[in-house]
Fold these 2 entries.
Entry 1:
Amino acid sequence: VEYPDLVVVGAGLFGLTVAQQAVEHLGVRVEIIDVRDHIGGNAYSYMDEETGAEIHKYGAHLFHTSNKRVWDYVNRFTSFTDYVHRVYATHDGEVYPLPINLGTINQFFHAHYTPAEAKALVDEQAGELAGTDPKNLNDKGISLIGRPLYEAFIKNYTGKQWQTDPKDLPAGIINRLPVRFNYDNRYFRDTWEGLPTDGYTAWMERMIDDPRIHVTLRTDFFDESQPYNRKALAAAGVPVVYTGPVDRYFDYSLGELKWRTVDFREVRYDEGDHFGCPVMNFSDPDVPYTRAIEFKNFNPERRASQNPDRTVVWEEYSRFAERGDEPYYPINTEADKALYARYEELAKAEPRTVFGGRLGTYKYYDMHNVIDTALTAYEEQVEPLLKK
Ligand code: FAD
Ligand code: NA
């Protein structure tokens, strides 16, 4: 084959951003490969024909940022709706607003506390373990917001997320639990938020809408029967941007980095609207899933093209990932961090290969972080390689 100037492994937001920048700045030819049958990585979505819902295939994705460079960049490829993210939780037969705020507190205690009164109450309840050093997540939670609110809204939800009793989880998993002493339940605090007007996939297709960018799907970088494989590219000296798992690149030679994954169960209802909101958390152990996503409700501006009589919901079940599962959230224990640091050394030494994205750097990144780090990686690492 005639090799391109750059091969990008992974058609997620990191890879697409780097490819777009390489073409825009240097006019080079870029080949993007992905093992999946679609572009977009974990931000990919598709339209559900029956309901008219846009389903986020790898879990609910909300775009938000306070980074001007990222906001300006993404707006070149899509506009955003005025969607504002809000989450509700079902606990003990009642629905409460989240994050825990004055509305949650007053509903929970059947009270009409002022902000100062609610704060005094939470401080007093959090004082239960005063003077002790919380050794596990359960004690940490109590010491942050007091036992009643912790046990109602955090304890069992966290237990389901980790499939582990919070008494057996390290205290370090949480540093703070946000409590708002007013009625503001807007989830994100960023300057900008919204959903891409024509959907995630249309946004990402526009990023690479250029004849110098070619995409090959269903193609694994490590499969030596395909031309863009690791060995062949190294032999030909083609620069590579790699956004797959860093431990996989090095054949797990130092051990495996640990992740959590999420299983989705799809349920359809003969109703126009099942929850009345896009995200419903389930705070109690009697419901085995952590939360349910009703995708139609992310796009109320599309009501006219949605089915008024049917809706689709995805229930989320969280668990530890095995090899072969989709890796979603880095576990990030001290051992994992130390192991990643050793892989990072190997990655730095790897000639003509730039590692990036959430899998390539073992980080939980939101989309705006991934785009920001991709713009920087392009400038600092990829462009110098292309000019050599
Ligand atoms: P990915 O999107 O994972 O792309 C990497 C690509 O590399 C994949 O397509 C993969 O198939 C491909 N690949 C891997 N190995 C190989 C190989 N050997 N050969 C070929 N291709 C390979 N962010 C937000 O901003 N807001 C949210 O609300 C939000 N919610 C999220 C919910 C969940 C459940 C998850 C898991 C993530 C969420 N994110 C959210 C984060 C967001 O998904 C990521 O920031 C972003 O998608 C990461 O882009 P990436 O390019 O780094 O990685
Ligand atoms: Na193209």
Entry 2:
Amino acid sequence: RGGPKNLPIAEVLVDDDDCPDNSRLKHKPKLVILGSGWGSVSLLKTLKPEEYHVTVISPVNYFLFTPMLPSATVGTLEMRSLVEPIRRIVQRAKGHFLKAEAVDVELSEKLVEVTQTNPKGEVDHFYVPYDKLVIGVGATTNPHGVKGLEHCHFLKDIEDARLIRNSVMMNLEQACMPTTSDEERRRLLSFVVSGGGPTGVEFAAELFDMLNEDLGRSFPKILRNEISVHVIQSRGHILNTYDEALSRYAEARFEHDQVEVLTNSRVKEVQKNKILFTQKDDNGETVTKELPMGFCLWSTGVSQTDFCKRIAAKIEVQNNQHALETDTHLRLNGAPLGSVYAIGDCATVQNNVADHLVHFLRSLAWEKGKDPEKMQITFSEWRTVAQRVKKRFPQAADHLRRLDKLFEQYDKDKSGTLDFGELHELLLQIDSKLTSLPATAQRAHQQGQYLARKLNKLAHATPGMTANEVDYGDLDDAVYKPFEYRYLGSLAYIGNSAVFDFGNGLSFSGGLMAVYVWRSIYFAQSVSFRTRILLAMDWSKRALFGRDMMS
Ligand code: FAD
Ligand code: MG
Ligand code: MG
Ligand code: MG
Ligand code: MG
């Protein structure tokens, strides 16, 4: 026992003493990884086994392949195909797995507080000691303070997909009851999606496909005419964080499919049988409307988990409402150097863009053989500069769309050129608008991989040392480069075709070929051969027999 709360400390885990492999690892530095999602799994897959005493802690014992989750809600894919047992992945890294939840961290004593409800219904509390801790716990659904969310579904986990599938099927079955009135039938068949981001859009598309392709085969044809699908979006467009072309493509697609898109609309309250929302009309006036509904998916972004909030509250320098802040080495700001890292959706990197930009400007001047203070940039040079900024800071792409406008606006003296001061101001303006890294599997994956490579290197920098002998300090800086995010494009799946945004102006949409490419990209990113086989079987089965219309 020990620590501030005098809880049992799990110094030794099951098998540590009994198995020869494990007793060898017992004295290695303790690496504790929280979460079994994209970030943690990519870390585990890149980490060299036998360099650390690895423990993975997560309340679920599987890895969930989230990009395919919307497909599971309507039976395009089977739930089983989207999850992979985490123990197998942990075992390959010669680690331990604890199906439990992290609730707190004692930073100075290097202890994670863990809870687990045992079969008797009691909550067990204990500490797991670490030398290095990786926080990869993801994020939770954002409630936005709207009333009545208990009448909504969410789509974050496999259990959510199961509930959605049951609920959709139940509504279809209930619609066929002789006791169901016409009005009630229309309500049951009114499906509402709140949130026009990728998750909401993909779900709406999957639902529409299912209703279109399989409903007629199993249910009375008349139902088809009474079904409606609505997407409520607070902004002017759906998929508004994506490329404009993509967003327009998705909207055209939905219009063709008769999926109603309600833009500039805000949900005020969700009731059992209807949803109340306000909508700005063309004159800018706000009107309150209501929509009868039998099903509502709430997918309006994510927020911080309680666990992360607790950690942030403990550390003075952690003031970000949305995520834990790390330095460019992914080390948690404010924790003892080199002891805690945060990756994936729960974290954001303070990348000091402003410093980079000034450095960038100076090297630009140097290339031109000029004194920075005397540099003059013409519009065509500015175009090149903007390309380079985009390449270095992909998040800035959106703010660099109207290059001519920006140039004009910052050329204060109307000289037709930007001098150092003007350019500096322009870049600072972009810097202040730069949002944090996107909450995507892509990013979590890159960060997990980065961290594993660094941990592999760190183990080599301190060969043969036991945990107690290593002083990590700022070894990170010495042995490995800072993390750099590579934007590989965002993907969204829309109906039976995919749209791509590769981030460099090259986007691509439509057709079977698109679906094929999209799937193969995800096949390649997918974790195991097992998952690939299962997904391929699901797709073939669906192509041959359609979806199973049952819950
Ligand atoms: P997660 O993958 O969410 O993993 C978090 C893990 O931490 C989970 O295992 C969880 O159980 C565990 N955990 C939570 N709390 C605790 C705790 N207190 N202690 C221990 N463990 C804990 N991204 C894309 O790039 N492309 C897509 O097409 C795409 N589609 C998506 C579709 C849907 C429906 C959803 C929900 C997300 C989608 N995303 C997509 C986003 C992507 O899933 C996330 O960005 C990614 O999962 C983040 O990885 P992570 O490791 O940070 O967190
Ligand atoms: Mg994770
Ligand atoms: Mg996951
Ligand atoms: Mg979080
Ligand atoms: Mg000027």
